[in-house]
Amino acid sequence: MPLGLSAPLNIFRESTINNSFSIERLDNRAMNSDFPGRLSYHRILLVEKGRGSITVDGGTFEVHGEEVFLLAKGQIYIFKASSVVTGYVICFGDCFWEKAPASASNCKAVLFNNAAVNQCLQPEENELQELQLLFQALLREYEAPAYNNQVDAMAAYLKIIMIKLANVRMTEEATFDSQDYVLYRKFLDLLSAQYKQLHEVSDYAEMLGVAPRRLSDLCRRCCRNSAKELITGQIVAEAKRALQFSASPVKEIAYLLNFSSPEQFSHFFKKNTHFSPASYRSQFISIGQ
């Protein structure tokens, strides 16, 4: 259920981060917040120990420990009161990521282009230990005195972390052919770029040169969701953001998301959220905050 349905909420936005990158050690850090936050940067939260819960775009996850939360730029999150975390948090912007070698771009796309699928990863003990060492090394680099190419070094560490996290994502699922995984990555890239214009599985299947059924099957094998569910999730998330952070009429939002009419958009939105666009807007957030 969306947060705060009984009353409008304020939303705070992240302040600008120097060089679009930061990493911080959290030691029994109280994660309480009075208002939900809208992310201006991608975030990787490695939880060694913790308690409480975090709600991201309406989905709630318990915080236990030995897990990794991935939050994409633009998502809205809030920690439950009394939530406490020991671990690390990395924040990075797209401009910082561009400094990372291009070979890691697919890993970032798989993890963050449809963040809802990868919101919480649960690495094996050996994977967690390896990630902890990488986070420790990156933190030392971040806190070291400035020197030439320091940003490039940090970007290289981030690339390695992203590759390791992508491998956690792969090993969580049943074994599948690597060619299917490459195709799945290509689908996520297309979806990230085209979801406002293209809403049908057949559209993406045609662009990828495969049958719609095969595309849906491989999506289920890779992330437990069908291709249609992934498309719908992207559209719903964008619609929520438009309703939350703009005063644009529902008619205009429907047009921007390529629905044939406001009525079609309203039916789609209510079917997937159980709220009409107008009700969601008025109950979830105070416009203009």
From TrEMBL:
Keyword field: DNA-binding, Transcription, Transcription regulation
Pfam families per the UniProt record, alphabetical: AraC_binding (PF02311), HTH_18 (PF12833)
Has the keyword Cytoplasm been applied to this entry? no
Q: Which domain of life is it from?
A: Bacteria
User: HTH araC/xylS-type domain spans which residues?
Assistant: 185-283
- Annotated transmembrane regions: none
Q: Does the keyword Ubl conjugation apply?
A: no
**GO MF annotation terms:** DNA-binding transcription factor activity; sequence-specific DNA binding
- Mind telling me which PANTHER family this protein's record contains? ARAC-FAMILY TRANSCRIPTIONAL REGULATOR (PTHR43280), TRANSCRIPTIONAL REGULATORY PROTEIN (PTHR43280:SF32)
Specify the protein name.
Answer: AraC-type DNA-binding protein
Q: In which organism is this protein found?
A: Filimonas lacunae
